[in-house]
Amino acid sequence: MSASTNNLSNISLAVLAQQLRLYKPTPGLDDDDNIDDSPKKQSLKIAAVLICLFQGDNNDGLRVILTKRSSTLSSHSGEVSLPGGKMDEGDVDDADTATREAKEEIGLDPSLVNVVTILEPFVSKHLLRVVPVIGILSDRNLFNPVPNVGEVDDVFDAPLEMFLKDENRKSEEIEWMGSRILMHSFDYETGGKKYLIWGLTAGILIRAASVVYQRSPDFLEQSPKIKLPGILSKVDKLL
């Protein structure tokens, strides 16, 4: 698969979809070497988020749909996030979870989204296993955002390539689960509103942009090396 920064804006979304379907997640998170059987970590839950990409106006590059969480929520209130949430018992797979949650949160009809690939899972600070699902929205005009007022304050979009650039980016080194990692954040302004995209959401978007544009970011990424609960090796076979 090759979709370089120089030519990506010139290829059709159909070709991009075909290229992304060839992507194979990098082994690591769910390998046997990364299994931690400690009982206290057996309760890790599963979630999925939707990285919904579309072509910007005048072929100005790929853009990704983001939300600002409701300020009334008990956790992560007011933060920027990707549409998504925890897996329900009736969900068929990660893609089903991500698209269902996107419909519930922002009114995005799953039939408009062409799911093309699944990325490596991330683990949140609350030990939630989060699977990024990349989908393509062929016609942005068919999507009229209808935010769920109980969950979402705002819906906006940002250029995907922004998450590979050093502009408007800051980082802070923190310790998490025994590793020293860089916590990245990006300042973004659109429609007269300012947003801070940071933490897990920023990390997922950096990874997604790296996969789509087939290049490393212009800065040190420094992702953590972690061990996942043994239960994940059993759950993954069911998805």
UniProtKB/TrEMBL annotation:
One Pfam family it belongs to: NUDIX
Domain of life, source organism: Eukaryota
Gene3D superfamilies in the record: Nucleoside Triphosphate Pyrophosphohydrolase (3.90.79.10)
Keyword Mitochondrion: no
Cofactor(s) named in the record: Mg(2+); Mn(2+)
Keywords annotated in UniProt: Hydrolase, Magnesium, Manganese, Metal-binding
CDD domains per record: NUDIX_CoAse_Nudt7
GO molecular function: hydrolase activity
Domain Nudix hydrolase residues, every copy: 44-201
Disordered as annotated region, ranges: 74-93
InterPro entries according to UniProt: CoAse, NUDIX_hydrolase-like_dom_sf, NUDIX_hydrolase_dom
Manganese is among the record's keywords: yes
Signal sequence coordinates: none
SUPFAM superfamilies xref list: Nudix
Full protein name: NUDIX hydrolase 15, mitochondrial
Native source species: Tanacetum coccineum
Taxonomic classification: Eukaryota, Viridiplantae, Streptophyta, Embryophyta, Tracheophyta
